[in-house]
């Protein structure tokens, strides 16, 4: 058929650039790509242009290069360095860099962030640039599966003796602790042992890479004959050829590994010396990924740096820094807040100073940039907290502020004098905020997470940490990881998914967190039935189980039991305490009714204060209650203050 063998469709390589001694059209047909950015494109594929003798370079666009550029600009902008930072001529023996790698503080470091890589870095304890180069080449499926990483590390630390296949290869393999790792080592070995030319060694490398049996047999003959000329017997020559052939499948281009390792080193150097500027730039590179932002912010805080919340008087679109210890949240990381609005508010702020209140803010932003959805998101995120007005009041008031601002801008643009054009009257109207009940702690968190993607200021577990600190551990400090250690953890179930088992049952994979740390957990089928009613996303629970490592060598909790917060409160409650004073006396009868309506097994203690005198009364069993959050909320609402709490064993 005429259609057979024809190209079905065309595509353009993302970073492939052809280089020719004259016009490309002298060597191959070309066409204009479908998009403006494609430019002129060869009609031949990579194999055809290679056969023509053209050179193809792949230019890789790495986001880390943008991070490096932004970091250096932030350093200069904030005057953190008086010296010129030449990122391309850094000394490769900086002790601060290697200390950072040795303690596995690699969040944001190119190619070194993964949990598995951190595990090997901890074992490696890199102290030279060559170690970084080798680690990037080793951390791939082939070398990992062959145990080459462990060999390299063990030889480095002297726990394993290096063995060279032949004395002639010692100089070639010594930099990689006796391991064939780089393609260049394969080529050099062929030159030294069998007299290959550079071109011939490259042909050997290609033949090994393509695994063409007939070509490999030809190369074996060449290798064995060349080795014989150097007084290496046929058996040994074949052994070494087999060894080279085996490891050539894992062989990595050293120049590639060095280039990547240098970017790793550059990012590590910036993090070691300018941590705030570097991490701010890293965060700016993940503005659309709130999960990564949440993890990175927790890592930044663990480094001892401060991340201040979003603020219309301090923030820019991207993350920025106030000094060498403080990062300011980027407004662009808030859902629903566009770049146009942020740019407009930053330009206005720089020109005329900080915003005085909600009405001033709305009035000073041009109508085309004014977006009610964005203003609502800014309020929920805390970006307007600097006004000192309750968020609930801001939410209720902002539509009026927007309408007033639009009316004022219409009047000014038309040259008409509106009702509120007079500055004094306008100012008085601005000061009027609508009153309403404040958001509850849970509502505040819910709205905050809705626009920020995670809990930034507070966390749902914060409400219970103090009360339950002697009953359940939190993730960051109290939980010491040790294999098969039994733990009881206070945490939020943030992610939940189910998976079928080989036996036809079902297991649950969950992610738990407490605002400072994330941890994987698993519920196997034999336990799932007893805890399924507690497996609800975005619920705070107390988890009991054992800590061990999963198949990825990452820590996880194997869950044996899950308890709800109210269940734990009732189990460990010692007393339900209410603090009273004279002003509460008219409400005593209603309080009595509330307590009787919630009868249980927990004693009730009244702490009464009159002037400077205090007294405690333990109520009779008729007033014993079920201690839970609902009762706390009911009593506090009745008495108008936060006066009740649960005391625990």
UniProtKB/TrEMBL annotation:
Ranges for domain DNA polymerase helix-hairpin-helix motif: 305-394
Keywords, sorted A to Z: DNA replication, DNA-directed DNA polymerase, Nucleotidyltransferase, Transferase
Assigned GO CC terms: cytoplasm
Catalytic activity: DNA(n) + a 2'-deoxyribonucleoside 5'-triphosphate = DNA(n+1) + diphosphate
Domain OB residues, every copy: 487-563
Chain ranges of the DNA polymerase III alpha subunit finger domain: 64-230
Isomerase recorded as keyword: no
Domain Bacterial DNA polymerase III alpha subunit NTPase: from-to ranges: 2-61
Domain DNA polymerase III subunit alpha C-terminal, chain residue ranges per copy: 591-640
Keyword DNA-binding among UniProt keywords: no
Main location (coarse class): cytoplasm
Record NCBIfam families: polc
UniProt-recorded name of the protein: DNA-directed DNA polymerase
Organism for this UniProt entry: hydrothermal vent metagenome
